[in-house]
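Input:
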Amino acid sequence: MSKHDLTINPPLMNAAGSLGFSPDSYNSVDWSRLGAFVTNPVSLAPRTPAHGERFIEFPGGFLLHTGYPNPGITQVIRHYARHWSRSPIPVIVHLLAENPDELAKMTHWLEQVQGVSGLEVGVDSDASFDMVTALTQGAYGEYPVIIRLPMERAIELAPAAIKAEAAAISLAPPRGIYPSGDGELVRGRLYGPAILPMALRTVHELIKLCIPTIGAGGVYEQANANVMIAMGALAVQLDSALWRGGEYRFVK
Amino acid sequence: MGYHHSRVVEIRLEAGGQWEALIACPVEAIPHVGQYLLASNMDDPDEVIGVPLFLAEKSRHGFWSAPPIPAAWRPGMKLDLLGPLGHGFRVPREVQRLGLIALGESISRLMPLVDPIGKSHGGVTLFTDLTLPRMPALLEAYPLASLQDALDWPDFLAIDLPLQRYTELRNTFGLSGGNGLICPAQVLVTTPMPCAGLGKCGACAVASRRGWKLACEDGPVFDLHDLIW
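Output:
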């Protein structure tokens, strides 16, 4: 097994942005139910929260517009690296980069940190084929690299990532627009069961292309995750279902 | 943080004409005033995200939860509760003149603060522009416009403030330029908290003098003087 192989057992993970920056025992989450932990998105420089309305519900889901706030990679490593080294499950650090050079810099720093088992790289919704290739190459090093592609363009862009030796593709929440309470149009990421059919189609098409795929999007019940696994997904990422509870209330 | 089973027992109209729900739950599940529980109706396949519940009034077998509550909720419905979560109001014991400022859609989240002051023979005044068909006892109510002239009365202020009205606070107090509020004050910032502290998703971020804070875990009650407003 090479250092770039990816095995997630059990085949469930949290999606980036759903459970914070480390598997914190304070949260009383039963980590044995997840095969890996994905951090919140981390950027080179700190990012502040988005202005304006950040959460809007609609039938079947909600829109989230947060700006992926985080204190920047040096602070994240300073605060969380020791938690990563004590994590009961493998930790995958999710990286946001403006360009491949930023990504290479962050990758290099993380390779000096104990407790990291992999990287997941977020790709912008308007990224080109060449940018996906460059980002994948920028993150390539000691860890397996998962490229998180915009769901709407995953089928188009996945071959670029795999050709550049990504270990797998994961799926970012699709993006949409919805009016806020005062009528302003808000752009953001879409979550909720309404997303599931789109996610299932994307996973299905990626598997047909023999793309190693981590499914995500609208999974609120284990039966939905089982469909993705049966299609051939390596694992399934859970996002807002972890906040709602029920089958995926992993809080002890 | 704990995980509790509960049930909706009754639904009633509160003073402002909105719906409150009586939640039967273990006593350890009852949130302190200003804290919250995350409630999920596991029998509702259409429910996408949990609902934050705040204390409006304690009851024999649980508590009345402040509005808003989902329109689909009915008596008999089972709820899973996570919490209590967050930090609530901490009104010093020596407070004798409590000012309540309700800038949201209901006064209910502030009402549990009234009785302790009444029992110590203090006074409570409510400032709000909400219509109050049923006036709570032990309370005098005034419109927000009178607040500016009354700021020398309270020795503590407790504020219920929707995040989207944050920028109006200075005008509400009639403060200009860099003038600050002398009176100690705490503010319950109400905003969607979809991850309830589990994810640090940033949806509930509030600007403070020590960087961005999250209402879901650093609040939702903050010392007003710690916030940038």
